[in-house]
Specification:
Layout lengths: L8 E8 L8 E8 L6 E10 L2 E8 L3 E5 L12 E8 L11 E2 L6 E8 L2 E7 L9 E8 L4 E8 L4 E5 L10 E8 L4 E2 L6 E2 L7 E8 L2 E7 L8 E8 L2 E8 L4 E5 L10 E9 L2 E2 L6 E3 L5 E7 L4 E7 L9 E8 L2 E5 L3 E2 L2 E5 L10 E9 L2 E2 L6 E2 L6 E7 L4 E6 L9 E8 L2 E8 L7 E6 L11 E8 L3 E5 L3 E2 L6 E7 L4 E6 L9 E8 L2 E8 L3 E4 L11 E8 L11 E3 L5 E7 L4 E6 L10 E8 L2 E9 L2 E4 L11 E9 L2 E2 L6 E3 L6 E7 L2 E6 L9 E7 L2 E8 L3 E4 L11 E9 L2 E2 L6 E3 L6 E7 L4 E6 L8 E8 L2 E9 L2 E4 L12 E8 L4 E4 L3 E2 L6 E8 L2 E7 L9 E8 L2 E8 L3 E4 L11 E9 L2 E5 L3 E2 L7 E7 ...
Amino acid sequence: MADETNTKVIIDSVSVSNLIGKDQTINATWHLSDPLLQVDGYILSIMSAGKSLYNFTSEVTTGTFSIPNNLLTSGVIYSLQIWYKKVGGGYGTGSDLIQLVLEAPTISATTGYDLNVTLAYTVPAIYNGYQSCQFTLEAKTPKAVVGVGNASQSPATITTVAPLSSQPGTYVTYGKIVLSGKSSGPSSDSVDVTIFGVPSILSSKYQANKITVTYDYVNPTSSQQYQITVYENGTIVQTVLAAGLLSKSFTIGFTPSDTKQYTLTVQALSGSFSGPASALAAVYIVKPTISLVSNNQQKVITGQVTYPAGSVYGDSVLLSLFVNDNVVQNAPITVGSQASLTYTGNFTTASSYSVAMATVDGVSIGELSDRVEVIWQVDTLSNVTFDGQVFRGIVNLNQNSGSGTCAQVAFNKNGVIVDTINVTPVNGEIAVNFSYTPNTPLTLTDVYSFTVFSTTAVSIGPSSSAAIIFQATPTISLVTFNGSNITVSWSKNPTSVNATSMNIGLYKDGTLVQTVAGSGLKYTFTPSAPLVNTSTYQIKIAYKSAVALGPSSSPQTLITQLPVFNLINYDGTTVNAGLTYPDNLNAGEYGYLLSLYKAGTLVQNSQGSGTNATLIPASPLSTTDTYSVKAAITQEHAIGPYCDAVTIYTLPLNISSVDYRSGTVSVSVSNLPNNVITYTIALYKNGSLQETIEGNTPTTHFTPNPPLTSDNSYLIGCAIHVGISTGPYGGKKSITVLSPPTIDSAIYNGSDLLVNWTLAAGVDTNTFLASIFAGTVIKLNKQGSGLTTNFNNLAGQLTGDQTFVVKVASTNANQIGEYSTPALIIYQLPAITAATYSHNTLSVNWTLPDVTYTGMGYQLDLFKNGVKQETFEGSGTSMSATPTTVFVTGSVYSVNLSSVNGVAIGPRSASVEIVALDAPVLTAVSYSGNDVTLTFTYSGLTTPTNYIITVYKQGIEYFSLTTTEKTTSFVPLQTLYAEENYTIAVAATYNGITGEESAPAVLIAGAPTITSTQYDITTLSVAWTLLNPSVGSGYKATISDSAGGVEMSYTGNGTNTQFPIESFVGNSPYSVAVQSTNSISLGVMSQQVALVLFKPIDPMLSLVALRFNGSFTTSNDVLSYKANLYDNGEQTEQKIVSSSPLTFETALQAGHIYTFNVVAESGISSGPVSDIAYGPFSANRIFTFDDLSRLVAIDSSNYKKTVFTVDAKGNITSSDIQAPTQA
């Protein structure tokens, strides 16, 4: 049986979901100590300081309960206690108090590497007895928990499920407080985690008590600081911090020793945490000593080092090349104590070169040795001789930068060193003599040479060229100079079996200026400087080795200058060339070489002396091949440069025609080659050459001086002449002087061209050549005799837009004379576009043909019933004239025309009937707002087919339409705006021809706007405004009755006027409207404004409670009334009312006269004023006192005031004051 007395609630677990300030819930589970006890539910209570702050209820033993906002406060201890409800009422024993954890640990620093993350944290003081803190490590992307950890004190460690270094990314951590096994709090906010990586040391270098280390650090979270630790034989001797840098150079803080082993590591730092250390890298303190440096001709530099006994060093060496004080190249790391590099630059005397070496092992480089100079300059040998027993020579020490202090001479046999001699200057000599006696006998089949090396104590420079001895002397066979290059040929001396090359020396005025090395039996080279004509040049040659020369040959003069052609002529059998030699050469001492080329290939040479060179070709020169000649100056064993080639022209020119016109000779050559630019024309007078002229086209024109005359005989010959080269002359032709005829007329009728002319004076032949030209090209020729000719059927040949002319020339059996002045051929006809007759004036318009000419004119003929009446002439494309012919009804009049230009007359146009159209006269124009109505009259001879009505806006055509009626109405084709200016005109048309327009009339598009009407029984006053006053100078006002009939109308000028009214019938409805007018034009009618004719009757003014009450008889047709109250004749109040009676606000004043009237109104219209009604106390005369205490009498009928004055004697005088007029 359950024991209710001893049963209590036992809390199993309780946790709080969120931090204070966020939505918080309590998650709790519990059970009864006696599970058999029946209960009626549970109550959960949040307790603080022994008091219950808030209660929850539950029917079951677990639940989540929301904590009200602002219920709990940080820094206060809260607990949870649970009671069970007894069945039947009351509560059982409560549970133990379980402290609630409302806050979370504060994470201050994190760090991580591989499988571990370490973090520092604090918890609020009220949870000092906490059991543990639980922490979670979470990857951000993709989001996933990667590790958990627990700690009872800071720092805490989280063990990850996999190494973080294999999972690059960003991580966060958060934690919660576990106060006991039953109570835990909410999770803290997440904090980014610093993940450490292992640095990689890239290099470690020691130099001059400083260590320089570079490293790489690849990690998801970068490090802001690094620690470098230096070890001596495994013991830490120095630590250095590097803030955010991947390189650090620092001075050592310990005393180094060559015999000790030094290493260092690098690790990343973050806050109070440090990452794993890098692998150890060696630090080498030892400084090596260079024992030997060598440099050869291929710029291969080799260094050798030694180390102090017992020192620690690496297994490899580094060789560094310095230019001045900068490292420019390093040799590959080489195992052992020796390394080499090939210098990729060029040695210069402006720089110094040296090498240093250091021990190397992996990424570690020790201290560099002292630098040793690199010798790159070469000492040379000279004057090397052999007397059969002893070799002797001179060592030329190089004194420039990069040289050694002494030399070593090597004796070589077939290129191999067999012995060496040390040469040291004693007194600083530059040239030091040496001698050497071979240790073994020499043989004739071996090659012996000497080389020399520049040296210092530990440095050896490159070898000099080998000096080889030759005894044989060569012989020059020929020296040529082509203007750019020198070619030397020689014969081989049989004793010079060991010679492989030749030294060629160029001498200028006896001084050697250039040497080159050649091989074989001929060598070509370019002078190092241009050869000048004012100096004498010679060539010598000698067998040579690398640095030794044999004996020189005899000198050979070099010819550097060339002749100049002054004439080339081929007369059909012989090539003749005129030569000019340089001024500083005696032509008698030199010869020439004249060379003939065919298509660029040498075919024949001719040699001789003097300035006139000739060459007779071995076979005749063809007229279809290309020939040229060159010339050079010669001497024994020497040929100078060729002059420029000159073309030889072999083709005789054939003259196809010769003309003499206007003082000009025209020569046409029929076979001028395409590649020939010029040719010579020779004019002979009576058998003697008169002059020569140069031509450059197949036809050449020139003016002889003096002019040709008919009493002399003339011949013309032509030969190709380009530059200085002249070809053979062809056959000659004679010239006869034929002056040109004068064309009198050139008439073209559309098919045939008739040309007439007159012969020039002195011409005794009537044979002719007539030519039609299209531009400058002859299109048709016609030859014959006589003074006239006809070109037939030209209609299909004179086409396009070209200009055609005709010229005529006199001819004889052998030549064509000068062409006449050209006459135009007008082959296109004009087209009449309109021909009208109006008001005794004939007007004709036409279009010109496609081809027109300067000075174009016309001939226009007027016909009556097909009979020509008169002709008009002029220029242009239109004509307006008053004919003498009288135009009468019943006859047909027409015109046609031709274009003319000088003596040229073109074909006549088609005849066009004249249309006699006069301008209509507008008599009336009106616009209703919808339709335009106009009326006009017409009195022309030709009955129009219709009329064109044109509306202009601001003077520019707006739209147009046609009509056949003289009175017509139409709807405008475009919108008419009241504010714009429009005019309208009409013109008659006949079969597409439009006559003169009528005088324009104003088209009034706008309507006036009536602003007010006032009727006063005898007069109607109307005022209005105009939107465009400039188009309406007058008005027409119309008064209409209710049936729309016009009762009265008025016209005049202005916008505000009065109309006398004779009578209105009773009170019948009447209205008024206004239209603008301008001469014959009538505009749109304004709105109809209803008139108010009603005059209010029976007005009365009474007094009710000291306020005036007005009344009158109203009308059903009136909308409102204007009631006016007057005080002593001056208006004091006005009211607008729609009915009677009405009350005024004005208060009665004693002694004042009040009157009242009424005006009926409707919109902007008002009617007659009612009669005046007098108010109460309005006797005929009222006495009162004014502001000056004077007695005043007021007449109530006219408001006249009389002032009475009493003087000192009691006399009474009076004066009248005019009363105000009452409206």
